[in-house]
Specification:
InterPro entries: UGSC-like_dom (IPR057767)
Strand order of the largest sheet: 2-1-3
Low-confidence stretches: none
Mean pLDDT: 93
Domain UGSC-like: 4-93
Order of helices and strands: EHEHE
Number of strands: 3
Structural class: alpha/beta
Strand content: 15-25%
Shape: elongated
Largest sheet: 3 strands, parallel
Organism: Effusibacillus lacus
Number of helices: 2
Protein name: UGSC-like domain-containing protein
Helix content: 25-40%
């Protein structure tokens, strides 16, 4: 007897609420998350310069992932969420 495997199934998803959008970046703390690739720091540096020229950014806090192929670890994500009003993440390819 031949068994045939049919690789289909039910995908369960959970609806997530998007974060509320900021009215302005003035007075906000900006987080910059470098993914660790070659040019990410250059891109983030330019983003920082442009946003600071256009808005009254209160503070800039920077992080760098130790491994570009893995997500930021839970502690890093929680720290970023606790300290920042918004975050820019860069992929430096």
């Amino acid at each position: 007897m031949i068994e045939i495997y049919i690789p289909t199934g039910v995908v369960e998803t959970e609806l997530k609420q998007l974060s509320p959008r900021l009215d302005t970046l003035d007075g906000k703390v900006m987080g910059l998350l470098d993914n660790g690739k070659w040019n990410a720091n250059k891109l983030l540096s330019e983003v920082q310069t442009i946003l600071k020229e256009q808005f009254d950014i209160k503070e800039v806090i920077k992080w760098k992932k130790p491994n570009f192929s893995a997500p930021a670890n839970r502690d890093m994500r929680e720290e970023i969420a606790r300290k920042c009003d918004f975050v820019v993440s860069a992929i430096g390819d």
